[in-house]
Specification:
Low-confidence stretches of chain B: none
Strand order of the largest sheet of chain A: 3-2-4-7-1-8-11-10-9
Radius of gyration of chain B: 16 Å
Structural class of chain A: alpha/beta
Number of strands of chain A: 11
Helix content of chain B: under 10%
Shape of chain B: globular
Structural class of chain B: mainly beta
Largest sheet of chain B: 5 strands, antiparallel
Mean pLDDT of chain A: 97
Largest interface: A-B, 36 and 36 residues
Mean pLDDT of chain B: 89
Shape of chain A: globular
Strand content of chain B: 35-45%
Number of helices of chain A: 13
Distance between the termini of chain A: 20 Å
Strand order of the largest sheet of chain B: 6-5-4-7-8
CATH architecture of the largest domain in chain A: 3-Layer(aba) Sandwich
CATH class of chain B: Mainly Beta
Strand content of chain A: 15-25%
CATH topology of the largest domain in chain A: Peroxisomal Thiolase, Chain A, domain 1
Number of helices of chain B: 2
Number of domains of chain A: 2
Largest sheet of chain A: 9 strands, mixed
Order of helices and strands of chain B: HHEEEEEEEE
Oligomer: heterodimer
Radius of gyration of chain A: 19 Å
Distance between the termini of chain B: 40 Å
Helix content of chain A: 25-40%
Chain lengths: 387, 141
């Protein structure tokens, strides 16, 4: 397998984009990434998306987008792994280029969520869980995370307020990201008083959904030169792992074993360990997931994830900065697009384009995208090189 | 449209019929083709007692389509006495009275109707506070 680089990136704002359709949103990010790469089109297209059949009544998104962006006759396919669809599509594009089969791959993560009412979207999101044995019991996706969070607080002795720093940090960083859904600072008091969604998860533990798309162009690393102000960004590690579909089937529902396995494989591939990661865009769909991700990826001991938030270690200037562009919590969570936002944001960090939330001297960044309640987890490690 | 699906699940929903692994004796619910404990083939049926305790729980305020009218309602991870954990609604409880570790037992209850279109009533297992274990905050009924 040959080394691969990310030549171009693009993204749309995450928002309720009433005036734009699924294709316009995805097209906007695709064209932005192609322009950033200096290309008109790519040899193959990979589309990450979860909900288009349920929310937009549209399937076959591969061809749908190839047609829209003028890539007629080119190979294109949609990849679905619930909220992990974005990174799953990225990994598919990566393997296409790394194998030598394709010279340029365009990957677009896209989601249009606001064409249906809230409870219908809640039901659509629940399709990420086990239909017969979770969803049939009236489970929402939030509630699965709530079940994990309640048990975690019970076993490890944390209070709800101990998770506040994760959300406060995400909101503080999103203020400086023009593509973010939310641009408001939040306080501990607001965090504690926010309206309840599924106990103990309230609105400020949870990420807001939205419409959005993010994209990247992948090419062989040997064809890219880094230059002053814009280093070459290569993919140093990529791995995917699965866990049981249902939370109740796990030997330990409070451990993200797929995060453990995919991060360890990605570290090994990159020849590094967690101590070498300068910035980590993790999948903070809910505050509990931040804690579990930090633990499974080797940044905290079991049950000690919230400590990193309370000690300010996750801030931009901290030991392991997370959600530097707002994370799912405040940048927003357009589910099947989220994995590509994370990749784009890590590239921005490695290029030094993040302004007030720039991590000083960031050279190695990690993006981790989760599908379902920990069922599919993909980890990517990107590295800036100056050659 | 969904009639065969509900029909196929009747043993699980009404009788809590899972499996016992013939190789390692691990109790399995819901049934699956491969034993999650030893990785060998699983196929022998096993009927669970329906007794267990609350491993975790949540009260849902924002419900998916079809469950809106029931909200708020409480869903739990119930650890069955025979080992496995299952996801199930709790019934006959006030959300505030539920605790981790609380003994519960299976009952059959209506889950939801299939909307006005077909009017299928879906019944399934739910769990209520155990009537056989007297507790200060859950008086034996």
């Amino acid at each position: 397998m040959r080394e691969v680089a990310i030549l171009g990136i693009g993204q749309t704002v995450v928002d309720e984009q009433w005036n734009k359709s699924l294709k316009e949103i995805g097209g906007e990010a695709a064209f932005a990434a192609l322009e950033d790469a200096g290309l008109q089109r790519a040899e193959a297209l990979f589309v990450g998306n979860m909900l288009s059949p349920l929310v937009s009544g549209q399937n076959q998104l591969g061809t749908f987008f190839a047609d829209w962006i003028g890539m007629w006759s080119r190979e294109s396919v949609k990849i679905e792994a619930a909220c992990g669809s974005g990174a799953a599509a990225f990994r598919a594009g990566l393997m296409a280029v790394a194998s030598g089969e394709v010279e340029t791959a365009l990957v677009v993560g896209v989601e249009k969520m606001t064409d249906k009412a809230g409870h219908d979207v809640t039901a659509a999101l629940a399709t990420a869980a086990d239909a017969d044995y979770e969803v049939e019991q009236g489970v929402s996706f939030v509630s699965l995370n709530a079940l994990v969070m309640r048990r975690y607080m019970y076993e490890f002795g944390w209070k709800h307020a101990d998770f506040a720093p994760f959300s406060i940090n995400a909101h503080a960083n999103a203020v400086h990201n023009p593509f973010a859904r939310l641009h408001d600072l939040i306080t501990l008091e607001q965090f504690e008083k926010s309206s309840m969604v599924a106990t103990p998860i309230n609105l400020l533990d949870a990420s807001p959904v939205g419409d959005g798309a993010a994209a990247a162009v992948i090419v062989p690393a040997e064809k890219v030169r880094g230059f002053a102000g814009r280093p070459k960004v290569t993919v140093a590690g990529s791995a995917a792992a699965t866990d049981t579909m249902a939370v109740h089937s796990r030997k330990d529902p409070m451990f993200l074993s797929a995060a453990y396995h995919s991060s360890r494989r990605a570290y090994e591939m990159a020849g590094i360990g967690p101590q070498d990661i300068d910035v980590f865009e993790l999948h903070d769909a809910f505050s509990i997931m931040t804690a579990l991700s930090l633990e499974a990826c080797g940044f905290a001991e079991r049950g000690q994830g919230p400590r990193l938030g309370l000690d300010n270690e996750i801030r931009v200037a901290g030991r392991i900065p997370v959600c530097t562009r707002g994370g799912l919590k405040a940048r927003g969570h357009p589910v099947g697009a989220t994995g590509m936002y994370q990749i784009v944001e890590v590239v921005q960090q490695l290029r030094g384009e993040c302004g007030k939330t720039q991590v000083d001297g960031a050279r190695i960044g990690m993006a981790q995208n989760i599908g379902g309640s920990g069922a599919t987890i993909l980890t990517h490690i990107l590295r800036a090189t100056s050659d | 449209m969904e009639i065969p699906r509900h029909w196929r699940l009747k043993k699980q929903r009404y009788g809590l019929v899972g499996e016992v692994c013939p190789h390692c004796d691990y109790k399995i619910f819901p049934p699956r083709d491969v034993c999650p404990n030893c990785g060998d083939e699983a196929k022998d049926l096993f009927t669970f007692s329906g007794k267990g305790q609350v491993y975790s729980f949540t009260t849902i305020y924002e419900a998916p389509t079809g469950y809106d009218s029931s909200a708020p309602y409480t869903v739990a991870l119930v650890k069955l006495d025979e080992g496995p954990i299952i996801t199930a609604q709790l019934t006959d409880v006030e959300g505030s009275s539920v605790e981790i570790g609380m003994p519960v037992e299976m009952v059959t209850r209506k889950m939801r109707d299939d909307g006005d279109e077909r009017g299928i009533l879906v019944y399934s297992y739910k769990f209520r506070p155990s009537l056989l274990v007297p507790q200060a905050h859950h008086p034996a009924g």
